[in-house]
Structure formats: C-alpha cells, structure tokens
C-alpha cells in the first residue's frame, strides 16, 4: 500500500511538471524542438512505456487482491511523511534512456522498496510523453473535441485515486480507532497503577509480580491467623464447657441450700445471657469471611466490587478488626469469672449462715443440758433435741460434700492455669528465638553497611585520582597539540634553500636516501595518486610533498624528516592519551554508578535499622512487663502456699490487692491508648509527607530540563559515530538500571519481610499478654476461692468435731440419767467448779483479745502509712506518664519529618527514571528520523543524478534554496546561542537546587541528632519507671510480710484457745494452760518484733525507716525522747 500511494502521488506530480514544461516551451516559441524531442522520445521509449502504462492498474489490482489493507497506523503516517519529502522532485524531468531500464524492471515485476520510487517515476514519465503527443494532436483539432486536456488529466487522476481511496479510508479508520483506544487505556493505567504509558511492558510485569507476591503473603498470613483463631475458639469452647459444668454444680449446691429457687433463676438468667453473648460473638464470625474477601480482592472483577465492599462495611480481613473480637472474647470470659466470684461469695454467705445455725445449736445444746439437770423426769425434750442434732449433722455432711466438690474444681482451675502459663512461656521462648534471628539479620546488615562504606571511601579516592589523572592528561594533550601546531607552522613557513652546494656540504650521510625517498614519493603520487610512507601519517606526508620542491629537496630533507618524526611521535602520544582519558572516564562513570548504588543501599539499611531499633524497644518493654507478671505470679503462688484462717482480715487485704491490680490495669490501658495515638500520629505524618513531596516537585523540575538540554546539545555536536557509541552506552545504562531496579526491589522485599515479621511478633506478644492477664485473673479467683474454702473447711471441721463430742456426751448422759441421778448431782457441783474455771479462762482470753486489738491497731497504722506511700508513688507515676506523653509527641514530630524526607528522595528518584525513559523515546525517535532522512537523501541523490542535464534550468531555484539554507543556518546559530544561554540559566538553577539539597541534608542530620536525644530521654524515663516499679514491689513485699505476721499471730491465738479448751479437767491444768497461753502470746509478740526489726534493718530508704520508728516505739513502749534518739540515729545511718 505504501508503494502504491507513492506511485500515485509521483504520477500526479510528474503530470503537473510536464504540463508546466509544455506551457513554458510554447511561450518561448520552441515548438519544433519540442515536437522533435517528443517524437524521438516516443520512438525510443514507446516500446517500454506502453507496457508500463498498461501494467500499472493491473499491478495495483493484484496488490490489492493479494495483500489486505495494512491496519498499522505507523505505515499510514509514514506514507504521508514521504509525500511531504517527495515535493522537491516537481521540477525534474527524466532522461529518455533511464526509463527504458526502469521499464524493463517493471516488466520483470521487481517491486522492492529500493527500486519502487524509480519505477513510479518511469511510469509517470512514460505516461507524460504520450500525453504530450495527444495534446499536440488535440491542438491541431481543437474544434472537434469538446473536453479540454486539463479536464481529461483530472479525470484520469480521479480514476487512479478511486482504487486507492477505500484502502486509505479503511486504514485511517483503523488508526483512528487505535489512537482513541490507547488514551482511555493509558488513563486507566495512570489511575489504577504506577505506570504512565503502554511503552514499558517490563514495569507492568514487575507490578503484576509484586501484586502476586503480596497476594501470596496475605494468604499465608490469613492461613496462620485463621489457625490461631481456630485454636483460640477451641480453648474458648473448652473454657465455656468447664464454666457450664461449674455453674451446674453451683446450681445444685444452691438448690440443696435454698429450696426456694431464687438463686437458680439468677443462674438461669446468667446462663441465658452467656448463651446470647456466645451467639452474638459467633454472629460476626459468620458474617466476616476473610478468605472470600481475599479471593475477591485478587479476582479480575476487583474494581467493580470495590464500591459494593465499601458499602457493606469493608469485610476484608485485618488485624485491627481481629483484635477487638479477641478483646470481646476476653471481656466475656472476665464477666463469667466475675459471675462465678459472686456465686462463690453467695455460697460463703450461706456457709456463714450455717455456721451461725450450728452456733445456735451449740447454745441450744447447753440450754438442753441445763434443762436436763433441772428436769430429770422429762424425756420428751431430749428426743426433740436428738432429732434436731441429727438434722444438723445431715446438713453439715452435705455442706462438707459441697466443699469437697468446690476444692476439686479449684484444683482443676489451678491445673488449667499452670498449663496456660506453660504455653505462654513456650510462646515467649519462640519470640525470643525470632528476636535472636532478627538481631543476627541486623548484624549482617550492619556488616554489609560497613563494607559498603569502605567501598565508598575507596571509590571516592579512586575517582579523585582518576579526575587528577584526566586533568593531567588533558593538559599534556593540549601541550602536544600546541607543539604539533607549531611544528606544522614551521613546516609551512620554511623558506626554500637556493644553494645546492652548501646543502650538499652540510647534509649528513643519510641525506641521499631521504632525497631519493622523496623523489620516489613524488613519482608515486603523480602515477598512482599517492601511496604513503611507513612511519609518518598521510596528512603529514602530503603537506611535506606539497611544501618541498624538486630543487630544494636535497637541502631541506634532514629538518623536515626530524619535524615529521616529532609530529608523528606527538600524534601517537596524543592518541595514547586520548585512549587513556576514555578508559579513565569509563572507569569514573562506573565508579560513580557504584557510588550511587552504595548510597541507596546505605539509605535502605538506615531505614531498616531504625525499624529494628523501634521493634527492639517495644520488645524490651514487653519483656519488662513479662518479668513483672512473672513476679506477680510467683507472689501469688507464695500467697497460695500460705493460706490463713482469718477470713475478715484476708478479705480486706485481698480488696487492697484488687485495688492495686486495677490501678496497674488502668496504667496498662493508658499505655495501649498512647500506642494507638502514636499510630494515628504516624498516619498524619504520612499525609503531610505527601503534601511536602508535591511541593518538592516544583523545585526539582529544573534538573530533568537541564539533562534534556545537555543531551540535545550533545546530539547537535556529535556525528554518526558518536550516535552509535551513545546508543551502546544507553543499552549498557539500561542494563545497569534494570539491575539496580532488581536490587532495589529485592531490598524492598526484604524490608517488607522484616516489617511483616515485626508485626507478627507484636501480635503474638499482644495475644500472649491477653492470655496472661486471663490466667492471672483466673488464678486470683482460684486463690480467693481456695482461701475461703479452706477457712470454711477448718471452721466446719472444728464445729463438727465439737458437735460430735457433745452428741456423744449427751447420749451417754441420757443413758445414764435414771440410774445415775446422784452422779448427776455430783456433776452439777463439778460444773459449777468448771464454770469458775471457765470464767477465769474467759478473763485470760479477754486480756489476749485486748493485746490482739493493740496489734491490729498497729497494723492498721502501718497500712495507712503504706497507702500514703502508694499515693505518692501514683503521683510520681502520673507525672512520669505526662513527661512520657510529651516525649512521645516530640518523637512523633521527628519521625514525621524523617519520613517526609525519605518520601521526597523516593519521588526524586522516580522522576529521574521517568525522564530517562522519555529521553530514550526521544533518542529512538531521532534515530528513526535520521534513518528516514538518510533514505530520503539516497532517493534524492538518485533523482539528482538523473537530473544533471536540467541543472542549467534550475540554477536560479538552487540559488534561492542556498539563500534559504543560509537563513536557516543563521537561525540555527541563533538557536544554538539561545540553547547555550538557557543552559547557563539552568546550570545556575541546578546550583541553587544543589545548595537547597545540602541544606535539607543538614536539617536531616539535625533531626537525626534530635531523635537520638529524644531516644536517650525516653530511656532515662524508662529507667525511672523501672525504679518506681521496684519501689512498688518493695512495698508489696513489706505488705505481704506484715500480712504473714498477722496470720501467724492469729493462728497462734487459735492454738492457744484450743489449748485452753483441753484444760477443763482440773484447776491445775487450767493454770498450766494459762501459763502456756501467756507464753504463746509472748512468743507472738517476739515474732512480731523480729519481723519489724528485720524490715527496719533491710529497708534502704531513710523515710521508710523513720516511719517504722513509731511502730517500734509502741511495741517497746518508747518515750518521746527515745523516739527522737531513734529518729536521729536513722538520719545518720548511711546505706552502702
């Protein structure tokens, strides 16, 4: 189609040229010469032209039938470009001889691209000559014809164009469709992908590969999280089953204790609430399907479903949605635990009521014994009492069975807590292992950074050395060129010598062969056109042969030979130095590229290092919390080992501990809230960084323009060889760029892998922390239930033993009532004696009670002092939290600024890559235009070779063209000046931009120093916080020691009471029991003194020692002077 279009257009142009020539010849009056030339041309070329004329439409038809219309718009546009380039051939008329050759070529059917335009010219000119003859005959018979020749010519043109018009229209429509389809496709690419045009398939493949990798990573994370979720569900179901069993047992106990059924209704309601909670918890799990959402994300209809997904609430799986679900589960479990606590408290209340009833029974038994002594004959009340005693015994046995069941449940709960603790420890060990691997990776990265720094320093030194060498070589080259110029001037300006005798006397023995060589050279140049000598270059030989004449050869031979040798040596040196300069410049380019790569790697390593530092800090905080939790667990285990019998004091202490734990949980919640605020601040920093990057784009538009101007100036100055070399260099640069992009993508993948690992570790730590909290709460509840159950068990066992003894006594007395009335009267006297003894014992116990109340008062004073210390510690912790918040705000601002700088640098790199791509496209377009121009110039040269006979007629036109070319040359020179001026301006802009970048670098360094300072402040704050936590732990340990001492004193009091009960047989044993009780009380006081003195000596803080002095004063009965002496001594003590 391309050849057919050109042929049609050339034919029309040739016809117009022939018509204009005919008009000019008719006006000049040379009709005879024209007719003669027309006849000769027709006679010579008739045989060749007529077949060509007959063949043209057939050839067009065959081409149209065989080859379908080419839909490529590039071909269509090229056809129109060649139409414009063929316009200068209007003035040419071909010779009669070349058409014969071309006609033969057309006959043979040679339709190649190189000969196609010639063939079309031949056909056009073959058509022109017969047309000229027809027009002469029409001029003779103009009256007979109705149509003029111009109309006929136009009709012929229309007939020729009718065959090609539908193909042209079809190809134009195809090209238009493609052009219109490309724009929306590129628009969609820009909006939905980082790509900008279709001409970069490698970038599209990389983007798709990254999407696939991201999808694989998301699927792996989804599988892992779903497995963890299933495990948690299983554990949750097991815990719910256990809780259901416990609730059923509690319901059974309540039904046995309270037949009214009020408690059962309450439990049923609680179960119903738990069931509804379970349903509510399961409903969002059914609604949310992360697998389906991920599959939908990677499906081809992702864009169409994006709006519906947003409307439905974005069902895509994320950690932010999963964490609240887990928290809800934890809250539900906590509510169930509280419910169980309340039920346990109800049971304790019921036990207390039973105890009171048993005490009432004991009193009723005593009354019964009195009534028995008074009414010996009445036996009916004794039977009633026995029936009541039997009922009470049954109730006591039922309660003991319930207590045993509760103890078994507590044991199960303790085992479960131990298992949870073991699982948490294994998870922590796994996290520590992953931390160790991450530390190893960071160490490897640091080693690579050090290597890169060393390579950078070495490359800098090499670049400096190469620059100095290049400058030295350039100077030497300039000096050698100056010498060459001087020597050539000397050769040109040397005067010919006229004294052959002197020259023969002064010349050495080497002169004759040199003269002979010069004569031989002259002969060779005359005969063959100049073959050069062996050592000197051809240019120097020509200059020497032109300067020297045959008469002066003998005189000037030695000087010219020496000069030629020097020139040759200097030129060789210049070539060697040019080669060295090129090698060094290539090395410098490669080293500069390596330097840029090293800088990029350093930046990436710095980013990764900062991320690792942040992760390490978070892990350290979590480890500190873990150590605190371990300490608390150990403390709780110690408390479980040391259970006490006094329920009232234990409940008060437990309430204080619960308050402390609630405060600790509040502090934890505040820390989590601060972390969430940190995340929100980071998001704000990202948005601000985007705004700053958009502002930065305006500043950096001058640099790509500078690059383009430099490349365009280089293209104007260089020749074809330079273009080829640049094409090779561009290919090498493309390869290097691809390698660099691959390395950057690898580094990015590594960074993303590190980030995912850090996120997974953080999530694991969070889940472990929540599990530990649940385990701690379960342990606390179990400990409380254990203590209460043990206390109840002790009391019930004691009362049961007492009741059994009293029952046995009562039965013995009933059996012995009738035969042993006298014995009963004697027993009455004994009972009176025992009463007196019991009164004495009661007085003794009242004294012990007063002592115990004194001890309790001192303990209360100590608890008040500890509460004041706790308040002070809380105030200090709050102030530290405020300071922490300020420091975190400063850190957030610094991190925002650092991230803005990083993103600015990334945007600069992306823009540079885009400009490089655009310049490559321009280079390729320039190369294509150059090839097209070369083809056109070859066709023009062929036509000009044919049109040599018509040059006389076209001299005027050529002169006009020369003038226009001179004008164009002037315009080009002016453009070149403008380019230089713009280049200087852009260089100034570039220098300003470089200065700005240096300022930005200084600001970045300042920001980094400020970040380091803020991090050091954070560490100091963390140290202070750790000290405060140590203080809290010390106070808790003191509190526990005091509680233990109290429990020990109470246990001793109980033991003394049992000793007093066993000594009712005689007054002597009463006295000995009283002495033992007093000694026991004294032992309790001494133990209490020992513990307080130990605390006093172990205490390192002077304030706390001073607070313990009044307690010692109460125990040891100090005066005010003694207390003052102790206080002065405490102030002078120096703790080492």
From TrEMBL:
- Gene3D superfamilies recorded for this chain? 1.10.287.1490, Nucleotidyltransferases domain 2
The protein in question is named Viral A-type inclusion protein repeat protein
Q: Name one GO biological process term.
A: mitotic chromosome condensation
Source taxon at top rank: Eukaryota
> Which molecular function terms from Gene Ontology are attached?
chromatin binding
* Bias kind Polar residues: ranges: 378-388
Might you report a single GO cellular component term?
chromatin
What species is this protein from?
Purpureocillium lavendulum
């Amino acid at each position: 189609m391309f050849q057919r279009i050109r042929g049609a257009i050339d034919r029309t142009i040739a016809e117009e040229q022939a018509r204009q020539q005919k008009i000019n010849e008719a006006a000049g009056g040379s009709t005879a010469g024209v007719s003669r030339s027309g006849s000769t041309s027709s006679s010579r070329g008739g045989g060749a032209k007529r077949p060509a004329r007959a063949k043209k439409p057939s050839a067009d038809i065959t081409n149209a039938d065989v080859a379908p219309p080419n839909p490529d718009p590039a071909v269509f546009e090229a056809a129109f470009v060649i139409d414009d380039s063929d316009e200068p051939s209007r003035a040419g008329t071909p010779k009669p001889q070349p058409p014969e050759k071309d006609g033969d070529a057309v006959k043979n059917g040679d339709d190649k691209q190189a000969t196609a335009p010639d063939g079309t010219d031949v056909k056009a000119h073959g058509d022109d000559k017969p047309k000229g003859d027809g027009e002469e005959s029409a001029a003779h018979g103009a009256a007979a014809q109705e149509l003029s020749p111009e109309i006929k010519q136009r009709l012929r043109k229309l007939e020729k164009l009718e065959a090609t018009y539908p193909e042209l229209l079809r190809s134009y429509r195809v090209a238009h469709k493609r052009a219109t389809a490309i724009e929306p496709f590129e628009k969609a690419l820009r909006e939905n992908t980082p790509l900008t045009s279709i001409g970069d398939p490698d970038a599209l493949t990389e983007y798709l590969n990254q999407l696939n990798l991201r999808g694989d990573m998301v699927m792996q994370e989804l599988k892992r999280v779903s497995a963890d979720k299933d495990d948690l569900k299983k554990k949750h179901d097991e815990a719910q089953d256990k809780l259901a069993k416990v609730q059923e047992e509690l319901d059974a106990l309540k039904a046995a204790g309270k037949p009214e059924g009020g408690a059962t209704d309450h439990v049923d309601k609680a179960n119903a609430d738990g069931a509804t909670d379970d349903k509510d918890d399961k409903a969002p799990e059914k609604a949310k399907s992360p697998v389906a959402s991920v599959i939908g994300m990677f499906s081809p209809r992702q864009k169409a479903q994006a709006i519906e997904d947003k409307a439905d609430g974005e069902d895509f799986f994320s950690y932010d949605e999963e964490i609240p679900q887990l928290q809800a589960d934890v809250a539900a479990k906590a509510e169930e635990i509280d419910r169980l606590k309340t039920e346990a408290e109800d049971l304790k209340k019921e036990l207390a009521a039973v105890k009171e009833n048993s005490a009432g029974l004991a009193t009723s038994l005593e009354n019964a014994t009195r009534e028995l002594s008074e009414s010996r004959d009445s036996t009916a009340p004794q039977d009633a009492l026995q029936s009541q005693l039997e009922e009470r015994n049954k109730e006591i046995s039922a309660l003991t069975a319930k207590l045993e069941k509760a103890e078994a449940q507590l044991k199960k709960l303790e085992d479960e807590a131990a298992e949870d603790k073991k699982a948490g420890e294994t998870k922590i060990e796994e996290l520590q292992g992953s931390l160790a691997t991450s530390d190893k990776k960071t160490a490897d990265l640091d080693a690579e950074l050090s290597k890169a720094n060393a390579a950078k320093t070495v490359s800098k030194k090499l670049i400096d050395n190469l620059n100095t060498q290049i400058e030295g070589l350039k100077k030497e080259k300039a000096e050698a060129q100056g010498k060459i110029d001087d020597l050539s001037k000397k050769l040109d300006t040397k005067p010919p010598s006229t004294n052959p005798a002197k020259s023969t006397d002064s010349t050495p023995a080497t002169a004759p062969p040199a003269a002979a060589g010069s004569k031989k050279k002259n002969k060779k140049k005359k005969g063959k056109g100049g073959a050069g000598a062996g050592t000197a270059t051809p240019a120097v030989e020509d200059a020497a042969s032109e300067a020297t004449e045959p008469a002066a050869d003998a005189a000037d031979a030695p000087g010219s030979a020496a000069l030629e040798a020097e020139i040759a040596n200097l030129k060789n040196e210049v070539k060697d130095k040019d080669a060295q300069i090129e090698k060094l410049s290539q090395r410098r380019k490669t080293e500069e590229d390596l330097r840029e790569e090293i800088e990029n790697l350093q930046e990436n390593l710095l980013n990764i290092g900062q991320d690792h530092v942040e992760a390490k800090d978070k892990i350290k905080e979590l480890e500190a919390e873990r150590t605190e939790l371990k300490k608390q667990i150990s403390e709780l285990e110690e408390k479980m080992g040391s259970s006490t019998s006094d329920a009232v004091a234990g409940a008060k202490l437990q309430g204080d501990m619960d308050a402390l734990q609630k405060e600790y949980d509040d502090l934890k919640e505040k820390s989590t809230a601060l972390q969430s605020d940190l995340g929100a601040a980071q998001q704000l920093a990202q948005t601000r960084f985007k705004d700053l990057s958009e502002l930065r784009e305006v500043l950096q538009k001058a640099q790509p323009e500078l690059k383009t101007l430099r490349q365009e100036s280089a293209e104007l100055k260089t020749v074809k060889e330079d273009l080829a070399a640049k094409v090779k260099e561009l290919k090498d640069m493309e390869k290097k760029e691809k390698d660099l992009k691959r390395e950057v993508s690898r580094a990015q993948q590594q960074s993303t892998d590190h980030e995912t690992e850090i996120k997974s570790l953080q999530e694991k730590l969070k889940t472990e922390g929540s599990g530990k909290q649940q385990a701690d709460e379960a342990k606390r509840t179990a400990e409380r239930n254990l203590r209460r159950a043990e206390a109840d068990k002790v009391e019930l066992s004691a009362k049961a033993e007492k009741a059994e003894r009293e029952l046995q006594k009562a039965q013995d007395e009933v059996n012995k009532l009738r035969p042993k009335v006298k014995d009963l009267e004697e027993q009455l006297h004994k009972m009176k004696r025992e009463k007196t003894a019991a009164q004495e014992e009661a007085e003794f116990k009242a004294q012990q009670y007063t002592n115990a109340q004194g001890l309790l008062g001192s303990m209360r004073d100590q608890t008040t002092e500890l509460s004041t210390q706790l308040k002070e510690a809380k105030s200090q912790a709050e102030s530290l939290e405020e300071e922490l918040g300020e420091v975190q705000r400063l850190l957030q601002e610094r991190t925002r600024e650092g991230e803005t700088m990083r993103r600015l640098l990334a945007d600069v790199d992306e823009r540079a890559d885009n400009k490089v791509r655009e310049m490559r496209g321009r280079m390729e377009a320039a190369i294509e235009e150059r090839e097209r121009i070369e083809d056109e110039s070859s066709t023009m040269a062929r036509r000009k070779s044919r049109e040599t006979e018509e040059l006389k007629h076209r001299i005027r036109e050529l002169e006009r063209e020369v003038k226009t070319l001179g004008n164009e040359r002037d315009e080009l020179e002016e453009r070149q000046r403008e380019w230089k001026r713009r280049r200087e301006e852009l260089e100034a802009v570039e220098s300003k931009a470089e200065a700005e970048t240096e300022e930005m670098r200084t600001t970045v360094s300042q920001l980094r120093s400020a970040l380091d300072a803020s991090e050091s402040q954070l560490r100091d704050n963390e140290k202070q916080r750790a000290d405060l936590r140590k203080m809290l732990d010390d106070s808790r340990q003191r509190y526990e020691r005091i509680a233990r001492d109290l429990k020990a004193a109470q246990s001793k009091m109980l033991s003394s009471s049992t000793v007093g009960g066993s000594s009712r047989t005689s007054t002597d044993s009463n006295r000995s029991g009283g002495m033992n009780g007093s000694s026991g009380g004294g032992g309790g006081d001494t133990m209490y003194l020992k513990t307080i003195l130990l605390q006093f000596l172990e205490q390192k803080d002077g304030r706390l020692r001073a607070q313990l002095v009044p307690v010692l004063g109460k125990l040891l009965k100090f005066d005010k002077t003694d207390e003052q002496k102790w206080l002065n001594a405490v102030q002078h003590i120096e703790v080492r």
